[in-house]
Write a structure and sequence with these properties.
The complex is a heterotrimer of chains A (158), B (68) and C (56).
Chain A (H helix, E strand, L loop, with lengths): L5 E3 L3 H7 L14 H4 L6 E2 L5 H10 L5 E4 L5 E5 L1 H4 L7 H4 L1 E2 L10 H10 L4 E5 L5 E6 H13 L8
Parallel strand pairs in A: 2-3
Antiparallel strand pairs in A: 3-4, 4-5, 6-7
Chain B lengths: L2 E2 L2 H11 L2 E4 L3 H6 L6 E2 L2 H11 L6 E4 L5
Chain C lengths: L10 E2 L6 E2 L16 H8 L12
Antiparallel strand pairs in C: 1-2
Classes of the chains: A alpha+beta (158), B alpha/beta (68), C little secondary structure (56).
Chain lengths: 158, 68, 56
């Protein structure tokens, strides 16, 4: 073909999307999980004690905390019930380990629907290698999904 | 045979060497989402149309959905 | 008289019927609409492979 330098990005579009990188196209104009995930969600290390984290979480006005390692890979989740536990306990002992996580490019409409059906208050949004992007709150997802429907932005779904 | 590259290498090629991105998926998928600045040349048209829309002197990076 | 151990009822994915231990979306073992890992990913488009001609 006369092209001397041709490369193949074998990991493809899925890899790019999973890394939370921007795209162009009709989907790019619709809100996705990464757009609404709260980046300021409190985080804690597995070896921290609950009493240290509880104060931090409360001061920030949150009722959830994501347990991460040094690389910000999600290890577990603390919701209100876990945060009320033994103050001396380490996070790794009281957290809900290995929570389901979702990719940055997932549609807000789908996430809102699932979070309502499963009565899930919040969901960690991570890159494909498990690093925390933010915490998606159900209320935020539902509001955004409703705004999208009001604008008639549901076209394209099959 | 094209050389396989990573996401970071792709970004470098685009930023530093004005690489041309080509998505080989069908047009409908390209319309939904594509990498910024990417052109759409579905696989069946790649050989025939590449010379018309791409600059031979610049690097070309092709991609599809994933490794499947 | 010995009691036969009761076999716990296996949970099934609400979408495909496959056996699961708990819902892969919410993580609850008593979810009323449990889904398996593959069905969650398919529904959310997280790992949807598009059909195309080349094999790499």
């Amino acid at each position: 073909m006369g092209f001397t330098r041709v490369y193949d990005y074998v990991a493809g579009k899925l890899d790019w999307l999973a890394a939370g990188l921007p795209t162009e196209g009709t989907n790019a104009m619709r809100p996705r999980a990464a757009d609404l995930a709260r980046k300021d969600v409190p985080t804690g290390r597995p070896d921290e004690h609950l009493e240290d984290v509880r104060a931090r979480v409360g001061a920030a006005g949150w009722d959830a905390c994501v347990v991460v390692n040094e690389a910000r890979v999600v290890l577990g989740l603390l919701r209100a019930a876990q945060l009320q536990g033994d103050p001396a306990a380490r996070l790794e002992a009281v957290m809900r380990p290995g929570p389901s996580t979702f990719r940055p490019f997932v549609s807000i409409e789908e996430m809102a629907r699932f979070m309502i059906e499963h009565a899930l208050e919040s969901s960690p949004i991570t890159t494909s290698d498990g690093r925390l992007v933010g915490l998606l709150r159900r209320d935020d997802a539902v509001r955004a999904a409703q705004r999208g429907q009001e604008k008639g932005g549901g076209g394209g779904d099959q | 045979m094209p050389q396989e590259i990573s996401r970071e290498e792709l970004r470098r090629l685009v930023a530093d060497e004005t690489a041309q991105l080509v998505e080989v998926l069908p047009a409908s998928e390209y319309r939904e989402d594509h990498l910024p600045g990417a052109l759409n040349l579905p696989l069946r048209r790649l050989e025939s149309d590449a010379r018309e829309v791409l600059t031979p002197a610049r690097p070309v990076v092709v991609y599809c959905w994933d490794t499947a | 008289m010995t009691d036969r151990a009761e076999t716990p009822e296996q949970m099934g994915c609400g979408q495909c019927g496959g056996a699961i231990d708990g819902c892969e979306f919410c993580g609850e073992s008593e979810c009323r609409c449990p889904l398996c890992y593959e069905c969650v990913n398919t529904a959310l488009g997280q790992a949807l492979a598009q059909p195309h001609g080349h094999g790499g």
